[in-house]
Amino acid sequence: MDRITIIGLGLIGGSLGMALKAAKLKNVEIVGVDNSWDTVNAAKRRGAVDIVERDIGKAVRDAQMVVVATPILAFRQVFEAISPYLTEGAVVTDVGSTKSQVMQWAQELLPAGTNFVGGHPMAGKETAGIESAAATLFQGTTYCVLPSATATKSAVELVSGLATTVGAEPYFIDIEEHDMLVGGISHLPLVLAAALVSATSASPSWDEMAKLASSGFRDTSRLASSDFELVKGISSTNQAGLVHWIDAYLTVLLDFKKALVEDPERFLVSVEKAREARDRWLSGAYKRLGPQTEIPTAGEQMAELFMGSRLANAMKDQGERLKELEKGPRKEG
Amino acid sequence: MDRITIIGLGLIGGSLGMALKAAKLKNVEIVGVDNSWDTVNAAKRRGAVDIVERDIGKAVRDAQMVVVATPILAFRQVFEAISPYLTEGAVVTDVGSTKSQVMQWAQELLPAGTNFVGGHPMAGKETAGIESAAATLFQGTTYCVLPSATATKSAVELVSGLATTVGAEPYFIDIEEHDMLVGGISHLPLVLAAALVSATSASPSWDEMAKLASSGFRDTSRLASSDFELVKGISSTNQAGLVHWIDAYLTVLLDFKKALVEDPERFLVSVEKAREARDRWLSGAYKRLGPQTEIPTAGEQMAELFMGSRLANAMKDQGERLKELEKGPRKEG
After folding, report:
1. Cα–Cα distances in Å, from A78 out to A8, A116, A163, A230, B239?
2. Are residues B137 and B19 part of one domain?
């Protein structure tokens, strides 16, 4: 029996467990650990794990793969706690929203020879916690895979296999590039949403405005309800990326305002261009650009060499089932 | 048989027709007119109207209530076209997103004695057109009612009754105040969404970013896909309101950036405050502030005096059905 241990059973950790369980991997058991017993019990009840552990050392001792899914600011502590117990050759991955800082912590704190491969599933909800978790959370989404300098090719393939198994498309990307790009499409929207609520709710007329606010306000401001730990993690580990994008945004918004006042026709052209760009994005045009070819994703033979692994085989067996799942209904976007 | 004529059978006009038909008003027929035959046919097929008319004069000639639901920039032309044909005492209302300009046009162009009462249902979708229309679009939403200086009390109550009949809560509000408030919770979000898409899609890395963008980006940018006519109407009839709110927003965003760089703790406090404000809004706390009392909404006797009206009775009969409908499932927020 092989073991995948998930540390932190919130929205992402819980959903990964549920998706892995739904994949019915052969001879693989999912071990879950969390510092809240309420969460652990809920994870068990929701079928996100096979076994729960209170002791983090016990939880990782026999694991071939360890997924760190706590808030990012707890990673340092988790890496320190698991280091003495990791099996030789074990693959460690994470689901954090930023990567430069995480890679540094992994290099500093995990034992030499640990196969660390960063991961970032591009999926989420503004409601945190195991109760919001869902096996389908990753269906049709992009899953960033960021190997450390010392990770073996088979370790990379195992994390890539994890992404595929939960219904996502693995996407290999440079660490610095990752943080800059997610700064624009994930962290900037969060700050914009919070600023929208801040600007409107500070108005003396907010009580009346709140009565009028409808679905447009609700969706544009949705990310303002994001989990506090997530916001804290992002703002302290991707400050530079965030500032870069706030600056880019300020430039655009100032220009929109200038156009609105001085040349309304130009304002309308800008808005129309944005509409076209979003519609093209919504159409899935960019997803259809096809999988990357520079990093092979199908070298199961390598995964087999690595830890003689039944886990690799289980992931491979899962391929057909996944294709069926992927034909199923997908969420918009 | 009384007549309610809807001019313009797009998302809002079509949904109003469907909601009125769902209310099964006694002895009331819904007449629809639109300058596109495709739209007219679709409205008929979708059950949004009883009778379709190509000729706008014929359509309004025997109507007790006329609802103008074309793009706002066509209002001037519509008011001119219907003026010679309006029945004396007919109530004219609209569904435009801004009101100062509309009230001026109504005063200039509609015959003296016309009961103009502005309306603005706070409901919508980013997808325009009759195909997106739904009888439930207005359920649980706020419907702004803005009487002109010359509208009779019974005319105000009839438009208020229209709002109630389609499942919304009528809300009386000053014209200038309306335009300023919707500038913040409706028009500003639209501009912010367009600016987000503009800022990100202008990046040389957009092709990669688009692959990573997920539900957070989708929702924050949703309003960037708004109907072009809507954007055009808003930006040309509420420029001052929009500029005011863009300025307020720029101030907040600049402050967020400053805090992020100089005092991250303060940044987090601001974001947390925004989350609390949004959660309070989502909880429905502001809707529960209760109905306004300064303008009576239950004076059916007045509506009856006005045009001896079966239409008023039909609206009144509808009260019980509505209460049942309102107990049904509501959309979030």
Report:
1. 10, 14, 22, 17, 53
2. yes
Name the residue among A27, A15, A19, A14 with its Cα closest to residue A317.
A27
Cβ under 8 Å to A: B residues 136-175:
141-142, 144, 171, 173
**Rounded distance between C-alpha atoms, residue B156 and residue B298, angstroms:** 11
CA B162, CA A226: separation in Å to the nearest integer? Answer: 38
**Given an 8 Å threshold on Cβ–Cβ distance, is B235 in contact with A188?**
no
Helix axes A228-237, A188-201, angle to 10 degrees: 120
Among A122, A141, A210, select the one facing B286 at the smallest CB separation. Answer: A210
Residue with tokens 């059978």: B9
Number of separate helices (H) and strands (E) present in chain B: 15, 8
CATH code at position A213 = 1.10.3660.10
pLDDT bracket for residue A287 (50, 70, 90): confident
Burial string for B137-169 (b: 16+ CB within 10 Å, else e) reads: bbbbbbbbbbbbeebbbbbbbbbbbbbbbbbbb
Task: Note down the domain range covering B134.
Answer: 2-173+291-327
Q: Are residues B196 and B258 in the same domain?
A: yes
Kindly state the average pLDDT of the residues B177-188.
96
What is the model's pTM? 0.85
The number of CA neighbours under 13 Å toward the Cβ of A221 is: 31
A199 and A310 assigned to the same domain = no
Map residue B31 onto helix, strand or coil: strand
On chain A, the residues whose CB falls within 8 A of the CB of B271 are 191, 194, 224, 228, 231, 235
Q: What residue type is assigned to position A281 of the chain?
A: W
The verdict on B189 and B254 lying in the same domain is: yes
Query: What H or E segment, with its residue span, contains residue A292?
Result: none
Q: How many domains does chain B fold into? A: 2
Q: Which two tokens stand for residue B96?
A: 């435009």
The reply to whether A52 and A201 lie within a common domain is no
Nearest residue in chain A measured CA to CA from B219? A219
Q: What are the backbone dihedrals phi and psi of residue B37, each rounded to the nearest 5 degrees, phi first?
A: -65, -35
ipTM of the complex, rounded to two decimals: 0.85
Inform me whether the C-beta atom of residue B104 falls under 8 Å from chain A C-beta atoms: no
Whether A275 shows a pLDDT value over 60: the answer reads: yes
CB-based contact A231 B268, cutoff 8 Å: yes
Q: CA-to-CA distance for A184 and A246, rounded, in angstroms?
A: 9
Q: Are A95 and A12 in contact (CB under 8 A)?
A: yes
What one-character DSSP code corresponds to residue A186?
A: I
Q: Within this chain, do residues A231 and A321 fall inside the same structural domain, yes or no?
A: no
The reply to whether A38 falls in a domain is: yes
SS3 A125: coil
Task: Answer whether A257 sits within 8 Å of B271, measured CB to CB.
Answer: no
Q: What is the mean pLDDT of chain A?
A: 89
Measured between alpha carbons, how far is B328 from A4 in angstroms, rounded to an integer?
Answer: 44
The residue from B245, B262, B279 where one domain ends is B262
A308 has pLDDT over 80: no
Taking alpha carbons only, the member of B270, B278, B264 closest to residue A243 is B264
